[in-house]
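ARCHIVE CARD
Drawer: 12
Card no.: 0347
Subject: one protein chain, sequence and derived structure
Cross-reference: see card 0346
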Amino acid sequence: MGRKSVALIADVSIDKAVETMMQKAAKELGSLNVVVANAGIVQVKPILDITTEDWDKMFATNMRGTGGKIIGACSVAGYTSAPMMGHYSATKWGVRGLTQAAAMEWAKHKITVNAYCPDLCPFDPGTYVIAMEKIENYNI
């Protein structure tokens, strides 16, 4: 189809890391027509146990990490929450609200803004641990 893409890894809670990632993408592709902001973290914890550090990290990654087309990573948690996921759900409601506001504001500039909202998937906790170990080996 003549399309090119590139996958890059960056900590979206660090402005300089995002800047570097975008520069690498532009250098590799020549121009950016669509950017998918697919960053997100989740932490299962009772609301009363959420620390300021937990909240700041969740907000920095799930909210800040987001012309042409902008596609954000929301979640079904942006529509309904679950016990032990208060701050995760709050940030995903934020992604949803910011997406809607940006879509309305930027439509006049011919910039479309959307978000996709996947649901939770059942998984084997052992597989999750192995995946997290691999991610940690990449210093993400």
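Annotation on reverse: The mean pLDDT is 82. The first strand starts at residue 34 and ends at 37.
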